Amino acid sequence: xxxxxxxxxxxxxxxxxxxLSCVASGSIFSINVMGWYRQAPGKQRELVAKVTSxxxxxxxxxxxxxxxxxxxxxxxxxxxxxxxxxxxDTAVYYCNLQLPGGAAAWGQGTQVTVSS
Length: 116
Description:
By secondary structure, the chain is an all-beta fold. The protein has strands spanning 2-7, 10-12, 18-26, 33-39, 46-52, 57-59, 67-71, 77-82, 91-98, 104-106, 110-114. The strands form 2 sheets. Strands 2, 4, 5, 6, 9, 10 and 11 form a 7-stranded mixed β-sheet that branches. It has a 4-stranded antiparallel β-sheet with strand order 1-3-8-7, with no helix packed on it. A hairpin with a 6-residue loop joins strand 4 and strand 5 (46-52).
């Protein structure tokens, strides 16, 4: 079993910044992909950003140039630096791990609200 704990969400003004953190624990020997997804009320969950074990990154078009995903020095952590936040970024953000063998783990979600 793998457990993920997310933190860093909150209320922020437009053009502000937040840094989300995700720390995994449990029986983790290797991680193929770590990423962040988000889901706004009434909308489908969407990929925000992901990073592979080799360091390759991908971003949703809506966040390119504003968000940066990175893996921590510890193998079991991943971060999402969010700059120039917009009201449209308001959502619950979820950390996701893809493990060898097709297994996946999800965090409980952390709320990000961008509002004046």
